[in-house]
Write a structure and sequence with these properties.
- The chain contains 20 helices and 14 strands.
- With about 525 residues, the chain is of the alpha/beta class.
- The chain folds into 3 domains: about 250 residues, Rossmann fold, CATH 3.40.50.300; about 180 residues, Rossmann fold, CATH 3.40.50.300; about 60 residues, no CATH class.
- The strands form 2 sheets. It has a 7-stranded parallel sheet with strand order 3-4-2-5-6-1-7, sandwiched between helices. Strands 10-11-9-12-13-8-14 form a 7-stranded parallel sheet, with helices on both faces.
- β10, α14 and β11 form a beta-alpha-beta unit.
- Its EC number is 3.6.4.13.
C-alpha cells in the first residue's frame, strides 16, 4: 500500500471513529508532531487528586489499589474533562481502569443505557473487562452485557434489548447483531456517551475494518472516544497526526522494553527435535514446585492443539487456548490456569495481550516471534506487578536473526540456557512419536473445519460465485499444508552430525557478533 493510500485510509478511519480527520492547522501542510506527556515511574498523586469520587476510592482501597498508575494519573482527568484520549502503556499498567473508572463515575451522575460501548479484539479480554466493570460498578447496581462469538445470539439480543449500562463486545459479533436487526439494536446504540477501543492497535490494523464501519455508522457523532493500546503503531501515530480535534495523547516511555525483573534466556536446538527440548525444559520447571505456572506460546492454532495433546499423552495436566476451540472450553482452560488447577497453558497470541493472569512463573516461546513487539507482549505475561519471572525462547538455526532483532529492540542480550543434551536424547524418540500421533488425531477429527466454514461465509458475503469460492478455499487450505510438507521434508535432510554442525555454526555466528559489539 502506498503512502497516499495510507493517508486516505487513515482519514476515513478518523471520520469513522469521530476524531474529525482533516488538514493539520499548520500553514505549510506539515503534520503536528506528537506531544509526549512525561510521567514519573511511580505516581505520586492520589485517587482524590485526579478527580475520582469517594465512593469509587473506597472500592479501590478494598482491592488494595492505593495509588493510580501513570497511565491512570495522566488519562483519567482528561476523560473526566470530556476530552478524547489516546493512551499507550505497557501490559499490566492498569489501562482498563483508566477508562472504566471515569465511565462509572460519569454513569453515576446520569445513569441510562446504553451508556458506554467497549470494543476489544478477543473474547477472553471482553469477558475480563466485563468482570472488572461488574466488580467496581456493584454499588451502582451496574447492568453490563458481554457480546462475543461462541454464545447464543438470540440470548444476547434479549440482553441488549434490556439496555445495559455498559456493553462490551468483539467487533464481529456486534456487527452481526446490528446487521440482523438494524432498526432495533442499532437504535439502542444511539444513546452512548463513550466509545472505547481497547487494544486499539489491533482493532485498527485493518482486519476489523468492515465490522467497525457497520458499528460506527450506528453510533452518535456526539460522544467521547477513548483509544488504549500497549504499543504505538504507525496507524495510531498517523491517526493522531491527521485529527483536527486532537485527542489527548499519552505514551508511556520504553513501551517496547521488558521489565528488569524478567530473566530472559534462549535454548539453541535443531528444529526437528525442538519439541523434545520443549518437554525437557517444561518438565524441569514443572518439577521444581507444585504451584508453578507455565505459559507456552505456539505459532498456530493447529500447533497449539497438537502440543496440548502431546503433553497430555505424556502425563502433563495442561490446558489450551486458541480460536479453534469452543468458547466454553477456552473459558474453562483459562479459569483452571488462573486458579492453579493446571500448571501449563498452551496458547496462541490470543493470550499475549490484555488478559489478566496474575501469576505466570515462566513464559515459553515455542517459536521465536517475527516481530519484537509480539515478543514483548508474550513475555509481559510474566514478572507482572513487581514480581520476578522468566522467559525461555526456543531458537533454531533459522531463528538467530530474529533473536538478534528482539535483543536490539529490548536493549538486552539474552544468555543461552544450557540443557543436558544427552538427557533430551533419551526421550526424544517418544516425544516426537507422541507429537506425530497428536497431529494424526487432529487430521482425523477434521481440525480447522470451523475456520473453513467462516471463510466460506466471508467469501459468500463478498458476492462471489460458488466456483470462485471453491477455488479460493482450495488455495487457502493448500498454503499451510504445503508449508508443513516443505518443513517436514527439510527436517529429514542431513545426519545428526550435520545438525550439530549447523547449530555450532549458528552459535559461533552469535558469539562473533557479541565479540564485535564488545
Amino acid at each position: 500500500m502506498d503512502e497516499e493510500t495510507n493517508v486516505e485510509s487513515t482519514s476515513s478511519l478518523c471520520n469513522l471513529i469521530n476524531l474529525s480527520a482533516g488538514q493539520s492547522p499548520l500553514s505549510n501542510g506539515e503534520t503536528t508532531p506528537l506531544k509526549f506527556h512525561p510521567f514519573e515511574p511511580f505516581s505520586t498523586c492520589s485517587w482524590r487528586e485526579i478527580g475520582i469520587s469517594p465512593w469509587l476510592i473506597k472500592q479501590l482501597e478494598e482491592f488494595n489499589l492505593r495509588k493510580p498508575t501513570p497511565v491512570q494519573t495522566n488519562c483519567i482527568p482528561k476523560i473526566l474533562e470530556g476530552s478524547d484520549v489516546l493512551g499507550c502503556a505497557k501490559t499490566g499498567t492498569g489501562k482498563t481502569l483508566a477508562f472504566a473508572l471515569p465511565i462509572l463515575q460519569q454513569l453515576a451522575i446520569d445513569p441510562f443505557g446504553i451508556f458506554a460501548l467497549i470494543l476489544t479484539p478477543t473474547r477472553e479480554l471482553a469477558l475480563q473487562i466485563g468482570d472488572q466493570f461488574a466488580a467496581f460498578g456493584r454499588q451502582l447496581k451496574l447492568q453490563s452485557c458481554v457480546v462475543i462469538g461462541g454464545r447464543h445470539q438470540m440470548a444476547q439480543a434479549q440482553e441488549l434489548s434490556r439496555r445495559p449500562h455498559v456493553l462490551i463486545a468483539t467487533p464481529g459479533r456486534l456487527a452481526d447483531h446490528i446487521e440482523s436487526d438494524p432498526s432495533g439494536i442499532a437504535r439502542l446504540l444511539k444513546t452512548i456517551r463513550f466509545l472505547v477501543l481497547d487494544e486499539a492497535d489491533r482493532m485498527l490494523d485493518g482486519q476489523y475494518a468492515t465490522q467497525l464501519k457497520v458499528i460506527f455508522d450506528a453510533l452518535p457523532t456526539k460522544r467521547q472516544t477513548l483509544l488504549f493500546s500497549a504499543t504505538l503503531t504507525s496507524a495510531l501515530n498517523r491517526l493522531h497526526e491527521v485529527s483536527v480535534r486532537k485527542p489527548y495523547f499519552f505514551e508511556e516511555k520504553d513501551t517496547i522494553k521488558t521489565v528488569d525483573k524478567l530473566e530472559q534466556r534462549f535454548v539453541l536446538c535443531p528444529r526437528n527435535v525442538k519439541d523434545a527440548y520443549l518437554v525437557y525444559v517444561v518438565k524441569e520447571f514443572y518439577l521444581r514446585r507444585d504451584d508453578t505456572s507455565i505459559l507456552v506460546f505456539a505459532k498456530t492454532c493447529r500447533e497449539c492443539q497438537a502440543l496440548a495433546l502431546m503433553f497430555k499423552q505424556l502425563g502433563f495436566e495442561v490446558g489450551s487456548l486458541h480460536s479453534e476451540i469452543l468458547q466454553s472450553v477456552r473459558a474453562a482452560s483459562l479459569a483452571k490456569f488462573r486458579a492453579g488447577r493446571i500448571q501449563v497453558l498452551i496458547c496462541t497470541d490470543v493470550a499475549s495481550r490484555g488478559l489478566d493472569i496474575p501469576h505466570v512463573d515462566l513464559v515459553v516461546n515455542h517459536n521465536v516471534p517475527r516481530c519484537p513487539k509480539a515478543y514483548v507482549h508474550r513475555v509481559g505475561r510474566s514478572a507482572r506487578a513487581g514480581r520476578f519471572g522468566a522467559a525461555v525462547s526456543f531458537v533454531t538455526q533459522y531463528d538467530v536473526v530474529l533473536l538478534k532483532a528482539i535483543e536490539g529492540a529490548i536493549g538486552k542480550k539474552m544468555d543461552e540456557l544450557k540443557v543436558n543434551h544427552k538427557e533430551v536424547a533419551l526421550y526424544a524418540g517418544k516425544v516426537l512419536a507422541t507429537k506425530r500421533e497428536a497431529e494424526i488425531r487432529l487430521e482425523r477429527r477434521g481440525f480447522g473445519e470451523r475456520r473453513e466454514i467462516w471463510k466460506r461465509k466471508e467469501l459468500a458475503m463478498e458476492g462471489l460465485e460458488e466456483d470462485e469460492i471453491e477455488r479460493r478455499i482450495e488455495a487457502w487450505k493448500s498454503g499451510p499444508a504445503r508449508r508443513r510438507r516443505e518443513e517436514e521434508a527439510g527436517e529429514t535432510n542431513g545426519t545428526a552430525g550435520d545438525w550439530n554442525k549447523r547449530l555450532k555454526t549458528a552459535r559461533n555466528s552469535r558469539n562473533s557478533d557479541l565479540a564485535k559489539e564488545e
